[in-house]
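Hello,

Our lab assistant flagged a job as stuck in the queue for most of the afternoon. It eventually completed. Since we weren't sure the result was trustworthy after the delay, we are filing this so someone can double-check. Below is the sequence as submitted and the structure that was eventually returned. Let us know if re-running is recommended.
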Amino acid sequence: MAVDVPDVSVIVVAYGGLDLVVRAADAALASQGVGIEVIVANNDIRRQQPRTHADSSDASGTGLSAAVRWLEVGFNAGYGGALNRGIAATRGRYVLCLNQDVALAPDYLARMTAFCDAHPTAGAASGKILRTPSMGEGPVIDSAGVFMKRHRGAFDRGEGAVDEGQFDAASEVFAASGAALFARRAALDDVAGRDGPFDEAMFMYKEDVDLGWRLRLRGWSCWYLPEAVAFHGRTSSSLAGRAYRGGAGAYWRVLRSRPPYVRRHSLQNQWRMVLKDDSALASFRGAPAILGRELALTAANALASPSVAIGAVAGFGRGLRATLAERRRVQERRTATGASMARWFR
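-- returned structure --
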């Protein structure tokens, strides 16, 4: 249901896979019980539509509904960069950040809106995100919210497990999954930095965890709502959560199967996130676990592909000054106490 003043602005980030984009947008347009607008933020310069200026909303020739606005980013700004531009171009009280390979259940947005309306400190939320089922396969969990460990590694709860009702209770989580991240616009505005709500230096991977961390530092909460369901058709067959549970051998196989650019971004974004979001005291207390994990992961990546580790270190070093400047901004604005944050690092 599209309206002049929407409750929710749905932003689908597109890069290739136009058939998936159409599916995601159509599912969003079928949402019930809430007023929405849908915008596709296109990062793929190979698939730009003929237009007279970069911000044209003409989606002709894409197969998208006429109700969908098309936003040409003009270059590959990364996932967070495209979202920042989509957020700036929309007006809804809430924003849904949507992967192009995710299809929402018709009541996803209505349930999210009702919950956040009733919980004014809820800054972000995500629902029960299931893997798009294959023939004969039962429901498999993709994410039931994001949790953090003492070593600052972030994981999707239940990833790769069969859904047997083990995550059927609403609960507060460290961060909401970026696959279908529902956020209060006021909260996004509250944590926005130079680029916008999302840190564009991270380009891709872990931007959802970083956002959740910064929301918490400002006193906002993040939630998991199992009654809101979405389906995620990941293009990768590897599940990080399953790899970690399977031991060193399983992790090594998954590591080798992941493209080098994924591993490089994952490494350097982890370091940037921890440096700017964690307090000095908390980092000191968790240093053995944090350093142990990062050294082990860096060594494993160096063994699998030396260029990945070298590239991650070089990229992190090039952005160090900017990261430290962003750290000052984040830490100066934090309102959460050390005790309130410590409970998330177990």
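-- support follow-up --
The delay was a queue issue, not a problem with the job. The result is valid. The chain has two domains: 8-232, 240-342. Residues 50-56 have pLDDT under 50 and may be disordered.
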